[in-house]
Each structure stands twice: as C-alpha cells, then as structure tokens.
Design goal:
GO terms for molecular function: nuclease activity; RNA binding. The protein has 894 residues and is α+β, with helices and mostly antiparallel strands. The strands form 13 sheets. Strands 21, 22, 23, 24, 26, 27 and 28 form a 7-stranded mixed beta sheet that branches. Strands 1-2-3-8-7 form a 5-stranded mixed barrel. It has a 5-stranded mixed β-barrel with strand order 11-12-13-18-17.
C-alpha cells in the first residue's frame, strides 16, 4: 500500500470518528412552566419520578434571586422579557429539544426548537442572553450560529449590550404596587385586559398578571363554586370536587396567555376568562365543577351558552350534579319563576304609601289616623353612629333639609318595594317594617342620598328585597358625610336681638310645638331657633284633657299648612328670650290662619283683625270654649280688685301749684325739663359746635364724656356701655338714652365739658313704669312719653328731694293718665287717692284692662300671693306698722 493511499484512509477514519463523536440526541416533551431562574420545567408522565428540570445550553440568562438575609427578591435586567419569550413559545406545548448534556442528577442542558426556530438564538439576537462558551480557533464552524447571533446583538447594542442608562430605561421592571387599586379596577369594567394566568386559587378564582406586570384576582363570571371561604387561610375550604377542578385548571391554563373581559367590580372583580380562545367557564360547567349564577343578568348569548353547558353536566350527572333530581329542579325553577312573576307584578303595580307623610329624613314619617309610623328607604341605610345621639340628630336634620330643597315644588311619589317581618320571642309579637322608593320627578332620591354620603348601599342578592332601582343605586358613587353643626339660637348672647329685630328672613318650619310656638331653621345663616306667633295667646291647663286634645288637633292642622315649608318671618318683638313674629306662607299669614281657625286667642294691642276669631270668642267656640284655671283665677282676681278699689283710699300726694316747664327728654324712669324753652336754647349752640368740630381718632370707653348725634342733632353725652355693634350713650342735657355706632360719637372739648348741667328731672307720680329688658312694652312707653317732649307744659310737683314726683299736663292731657290709659304704665299698688287725679288714673286703668291693651293683653296681672295679702287687709286685718312704714318708704323711692 502506497504512502498517499495510507493518508487518505487515515483521513476517512478520522472523519468517521468525528461524525460518531458529534452525533446529536433529540427528545420531545411538554413544557409545564418556566421557573424564576428562567429554566424550563417539563411535565412528567407515569409513576416514575424524574428530574424534570432543563436549563438552556451554551448561555447564561437573567434570573430572579431571593436574598437570603433580607428576603428581598432581586431581578436581573431583562429577566421578565426572557421569561415572557420562553413562556409564550414553550409553555403548554410539545417541544422538540436537543439534548446537549445530561447531568448525574438527571438535570438536562437543552436547546429548544419551535418548528425551525432555535429559541436560544432568538434570545441571543435580542440581547437577553450571554454565551458561556468560547469559539474554538481550530474549528470556527462549531456553534457559529450562536456567535453570529451574539455579535449581531452587540453590533446593534440590543438588550444587555446597550449602555447602562439605556438598559435601566428599557428593561421592564416589577411595579412598586403589584395589585390594582379599586379606582383603577372600576375603570376597567367592560374592557378586555390581556395577560396570562399566574395561578389557580380555586375552581372559579384565578390570579391574573397583565402585560404591565400588575396582578388582579379574578372570579369567573356567572358561576358559583359553592365553597366556604376560610379567613384564617385566606382561601376556600376545598372538597374533593374542588381539588379536582383546581388540578384540571392548573394543568390546562396556568401560565397560558389569556384575556379577561371585566364584567363587574362590586364585591370582587368578575370577568369572562378566555384561554387559548376558549371560555374556561364552559369547561367548568360541563365538568360539573361549578353552577351557573346570576345568569338572568348576563347577555343572552352568554346565558344560553352557559345553560347548555350546565344542562350537559346535569344529564351526565357529573361533578356536583351526581345526585341531581330533575323533579326537585323543576320545583325550584317553578318557585323562582313565580317569584320573578310576583316581582314583575310588584314593579308594574306598586303599592303606594298608605297614610299622610309628615316628613322625609333618615326615616319616612307618616300618619294613619291617630297613629304615627316610620318607613324605611329601600336598599340604603343611614350612616348613623351607635350611642351618639347628637351626631344622629344632626344627620337627621341635614337629610331633612336636603330633601326639602330637592322636593320643593316637585312631584313626589312613594312606592312600597318590600316588607320585612321581625319576631320578638319574649314579647311574642311580630313587627313588620316597610321599605319604600321615594321618587322626585320620576328619579329615586336614594341616588342623591348616597352621593351626599348620608346613606350607604345595603347589599342584597335577593331581588325580592331590593329597591326597584337597585342597579342604579349600586352604580351610584357613594360620597362622604362631613359633620357640620348648626348654630343654635341663644337668647342671652350679646347682639342677638339687634341681629334679628325688625328684619324679614326666609326660613323653614322644622317643627310645630304648639299652635303658637314653632321651631324654624334659617338656611342663609344656618341657624335654628324657636319663635312665637305674635298676637296669639294659648291658655294653659295641664289637667284639662279636652283642651289638650284640641291643641293636638290644632297642631296637626297647622303642620299640614306650614311644616317643612319655606316661610317668610318678620321679627316684630322680643320678650323673655323669645321672638314674637309675623309669619307668612305663600303670601298667606300664618298668624291669621291660627286666629281664623280659633286655634289661639287674640292677644294684640289693637283691634282683633280676625272677624272669625271675634265670632269664636262671642260664641265660645274653638279655643274660647275652654275655661282654664288661669281664666277662672283671673276673673276671681278681677272681682277682688274691683272690691278693693272701693276700699278707703288715702291721699298719697299733695301737689304744689302749677309751674311751667319745657320737657326735653325721658329716659324710661324720669322726665327731664327746663323752666322755659329759653333755658334750653344752649342745647342748639352745643349741637352746632359738635357738628362743626373736626373728627379726630379716639377710643370709646365706658364713662367717657362725648358728643352724640341723635335724630340729626348733637348732644353732650356719657358712654354707658361699649359694644361692637352699638354703644349705649346717655344725653346728659335731655336724659335720652340712645344706641349708636362709633361714627355718631365725637370726643368732647374742654369748653363744652365745662358748660354747667342745668337740666332738672322728676319721676311721674302715682304710676309704675315699664322696665327695659323685662317688659316688651318698654319701647312703646318711651315713644308715648316722647310725644310730650319739646313742649311747654304745666307741671305739678309733690314732695321734696328723693320723694319728689310730678303730674304733667299738656293742655287737657295728663301724661301720667295717658301712659296708664294705653296700658304702658300701671297705677302704683300703694296708691289710694280719691281726688280727681286719682279717679282719672283708676278709670284709665280699668279702660286699658277692658280693651286688653299692651301690658293687659293677657288679662289681670295681680299675682296670687299679692291677692292673698290684699284680701287679708280687706277682711280687716291691717298690716303691721313696720310693713306700712316699709311700703311708704318704697313709694317715696319710686
């Protein structure tokens, strides 16, 4: 054999040896999932336990690693992108693998192929993997496709070959918040979300990961797995059928691409889950793992499809339908259909509320005859706080006021939706509660109440115990109620009287306490107060049952007229911490309404404006038919006083001769005067000086001497009281007391201050005057007295010093008598004068009583104890000498 021949034979032998050495092995396997190291986990078959882990050959890929010390999971850049390529291309598929090497522990190094695509080459080209092999210099053809792919990625600076900044920018990272918020989920309703199944929790619950790496736990739409939830394990208690269902789903859909059509997010996120183009609910229903649920609410196509799947499981008696009884099923269906028919009939022909609605607030208050009932709003409950009466009362008021505004001038309907019965085992009684839909112009007010945060939705799956508008209520955005307290009227508060007197305001009648007393709410000021109807008097007798019943009937009629309605309130008078008001509703006087119906007696100073009330008094009808203890006592007192008047009267005053005087003022106690008009002229001069004086900055202080403007003229004054709204100043030259702001006050000068005070003052003889703050007639009395001012009159003075008193006569009119005659003063109780002056006073007082003028509007004023004392004297038991002396001293002081 030649040398050449020998070389050829040797070369052929080497080639054959290399071919034998390079012989590759392949195998096929189904991929179960991709683990956190981006290794491939294969599905095993048969009882033999094998190592089913396969790692990618030739390359290193990004991994997710848990720190042993901190427990924190750290992802390498492009871990997620690599994992997604492997999951999408391999999971759930029968894949061809090239076996590069098999370890002693059974783990394999592999190259996966999808058709003709080498998956490792794909990862290298994208820059998601790095080679861990080096090119052999003697055999450059070996693994050349891998080196070419890596060089291609490097040249294009893809993936891990990009700059550090670029890598951080483009790599998809795990979000800080893994789960969607409630608000984010609410925006998904009706939308289809793409992602993959991460985990199967139960037959009808899956963990879904979206393409943005966020997680959402989804319940399969329109099915019921009939499992009890265990809060301790935060999972459902599984029976054998449930475990079988989870195993089936885990095998079929875990890590597969899927879409979720979000149908609702009420209690949990429910959606139609589609995997590999198939609705998983169909498979669950066909296998009998779950039941259909709420199919009546589903689309027609979905409903028919799911019912057909469920029917298939029933006929085959699969899963939970093993003991299926068609007859029992038919009975249940018939019962359900009857309920649906009853519900449809109830909605079509709803019962209307029986009774007369008194108010809408937390509850609907209505009356049937003499009984008052409470109704509830359907499917909502108020946000009351247990054992917090103040909070709950305020909530009730806010709801009432909100509904009043909402319902004002609109059509209101009240429909009964359902009733609930509650049995009391101890009392052996059954209570039936009624639940209503309240509609304003056809719209359910419950929606607005939810939006305002006054109520929350009462969840109910049973349509028989739902509002007719339950769907709209469940879709309403529930607001948050913020407590805001109402300003309660406080009569003792400074400036309250000045804020409201002689003003007209819009208010709402919140409650009717009696035919003459109402509680009103003023929306503009967020203030609540009680007021009395002016000129209306209500006799009282707690033991008179007939009077009580009449008052209750009157209250009911008045409620029908004004309760919860907007009224105009004219604040006329203020007496004993109460405002006396004129009230009108729709231009009709509420005071007149009360008087015309004789719900109250007339107590005005002028002639009774209601002819119907006058007729009722004459005929003893209405409120006048009742004679109370107070009326009887008043009559008895009047009779006793009439008898007392005939008792021997003594001369109390010895008046001196007539003197002329010029009256300049009245301060409510004394009359201020000069000897002549000439003496009072200096007041004009002082007024001119103050008017022309320059105004300089100053601070108003109590006791300060100043100039004060009253009715266009300036007077010397002294500050009595300093207040923010109005300062009280007394004019020292006239005695007049005025309330003015700082603009009507000027600081005085030394020249004006030095001018002597020459005005004289004297009390009015034989009469008791009204007291400021105690008698509402005080202002009227002052006004009447001022009719005698700025005039020259005749004055008759009795006594001297502190006991000095006077009668003042202007022409033929005596000032003392005029005040008594108009019910603006009383004859002194110790006065016993049978002179012409005394007779005139008593005659004037009798006339004022008869006409019920001012102080006499409610009849006799004599108190019981005083009457007893006077009766003792009348019987002949005269007061002791000390008592007589004390009374005389008291009279002198007055």
């Amino acid at each position: 054999m030649s040398k050449a021949t020998t070389k050829k034979e040797v070369a052929k032998k080497v080639e054959k040896k290399d071919e034998k050495k390079k012989e590759t092995k392949f195998f096929n396997a189904v991929v179960d999932y991709i683990n956190d190291r981006n290794a491939v986990v294969l599905k095993t078959t048969g009882p033999k336990k094998e190592n089913n882990l396969a790692v990618l050959a030739y390359v290193d890929v990004p991994r997710s690693v848990k720190d042993k010390e901190t427990g924190k999971i750290n992802e390498e850049f492009f871990y997620y992108e690599t994992n997604e390529i492997l999951r999408k291309k391999l999971v759930g598929k029968d894949i061809k693998f090239e076996l590069v090497k098999e370890m002693e522990n059974g783990m394999k190094q592999v190259v996966p192929f999808v058709g003709k695509e080498n998956v490792i080459v794909t990862l290298l080209e994208k820059g998601y993997a790095s080679l861990r092999i080096k090119q052999h210099p003697e055999n450059k053809n070996e693994h050349k496709e891998y080196f070419a792919a890596a060089e291609k990625a490097s040249a294009a600076k893809k993936g891990m070959f990009a700059s550090e900044e670029e890598v951080k920018k483009v790599a998809i990272k795990k979000p800080e918040s893994l789960y969607f918020t409630v608000e984010e989920l609410s925006k998904m309703v009706g939308k289809t979300i793409e992602g993959h199944i991460k985990k199967v929790d139960s037959p009808a619950t899956i963990l879904f990961e979206t393409t943005t790496r966020k997680l959402m736990r989804v319940s399969v739409y329109a099915v019921n797995q009939k499992l009890e939830f265990d809060p301790a394990t935060k999972n459902f208690k599984m029976d054998d059928i449930a475990k079988e269902a989870v195993a089936y789903l885990s095998n079929e859909i875990t890590y597969h691409d899927a879409t979720i059509k979000v149908m609702s997010v009420e209690k949990r996120t429910a959606g139609i889950v589609t995997v590999d183009g198939k609705d998983i609910a169909e498979g669950l229903l066909k296998a009998g793992f779950v039941f259909g649920s709420k199919l009546a609410e589903a689309d027609v196509a979905v409903k028919e499809k799911y019912l057909a799947c469920e029917k298939e499981a029933k006929e085959a008696k699969k899963g939970r339908w093993t003991n299926f009884d068609q007859a029992a099923e038919d009975a249940i269906i018939a019962k359900k259909e009857k309920r649906q028919h009853d519900l449809a009939d109830r909605k079509k022909n709803p019962k209307k509320l029986e009774g007369e609605v008194e108010s809408f607030a937390k509850l609907i208050t209505f009356r049937k005859g003499d009984q008052v009932f409470k109704g509830h709003y359907a499917s909502i409950r108020p946000v009351t706080v247990k054992d917090n009466k103040e909070f709950n009362q305020l909530l009730d008021f806010r709801i009432k006021e909100f509904l009043r505004k909402l319902m004002s001038g609109k059509k209101v309907e009240v429909k009964e939706c359902y009733t609930r019965s509650f049995e009391d085992a101890e009392k052996k009684t059954t209570t039936v509660d009624h639940y209503y839909d309240v509609l304003v112009n056809g719209k359910n007010v419950a929606i607005k109440l939810l939006e305002k945060g006054f109520f929350t939705l009462e969840n109910s799956r049973d349509e028989m115990y739902q509002s007719f508008d339950y769907k709209e209520l469940s879709e309403a955005k529930v607001g948050k109620y913020e407590e805001k307290k109402i300003t309660e009227f406080n009569a003792s508060k400074d400036g309250i009287k000045e804020q409201y007197m002689n003003s007209v305001m819009t208010a709402v009648v919140e409650a009717v306490l009696s035919p003459t007393k109402l509680i009103i709410y003023i929306p503009d000021r967020d203030v609540r107060m009680s007021v009395l109807l002016a000129n209306c008097r209500l006799p009282r007798d707690d033991e008179n049952e007939a009077l009580k019943k009449f008052n209750q009937e009157s209250i009911s009629e008045l409620k029908k007229f004004v309760l919860n309605n907007e009224v105009m309130v004219d604040f006329r008078e203020f007496n004993k911490s109460n405002f006396l008001v004129e009230m009108s509703y729709k231009k009709q006087s509420v005071n007149q309404f009360v008087l015309d119906n004789a719900f109250a007696q007339y107590a005005g100073r002028k002639e009774n404006p209601s002819q119907k009330n006058v007729a009722a008094k004459e005929n003893s009808t209405g409120i006048y038919q009742f004679k109370t203890k107070g009326d009887i006592k008043t009559e008895e007192n009047a009779k006793k006083m009439s008898e007392l008047k005939e008792y021997k009267r003594s001369e109390d005053f010895k008046f001196e001769g007539e003197k002329k005087a010029y009256i300049v003022g009245f301060d409510g106690v004394k009359v201020y005067y000069y000897n002549s008009a000439e003496d009072a002229k200096f007041i004009e001069e002082i007024s001119t000086k103050f008017a022309t004086a320059k105004k300089v900055p100053f601070e108003v202080k109590e006791g300060m001497a100043c100039g004060v403007e009253n009715k266009g003229k300036w007077y010397r004054g002294e500050v009595v009281k300093v207040a923010q709204s109005a300062n009280v100043v007394k004019c020292i030259d006239t005695g007049v007391v005025v309330s003015v702001g700082k603009k009507k006050i000027k600081p005085t000068t030394d020249e004006i201050k030095k001018a002597p005070v020459t005005v004289k003052s004297v009390v009015l003889a034989a009469i008791e005057l009204m007291v400021q703050g105690k008698n509402i007639e005080y202002e009227l009395m002052v006004a009447k007295a001022q009719e005698f001012c700025n005039k020259e009159v005749s004055i008759y003075i009795s006594g001297k010093g502190a006991a000095e008193a006077a009668k003042i006569i202007d022409g033929k009119v005596c000032m003392n008598v005029a005040l008594v005659e108009n019910g603006l003063a009383l004859v002194s109780r110790s006065f016993r004068d049978k002179s012409e002056f005394g007779n005139a006073l008593f005659k004037a007082q009798d006339a004022a009583k008869e006409a019920h003028l001012n102080i006499w509007r409610y009849g006799e004023l004599v108190e019981e104890e005083e009457v007893k004392e006077e009766v003792k004297d009348f019987k002949g038991k005269k007061p002791a000498a000390k008592a007589q002396k004390a009374e005389a001293t008291k009279t002198e002081k007055k």
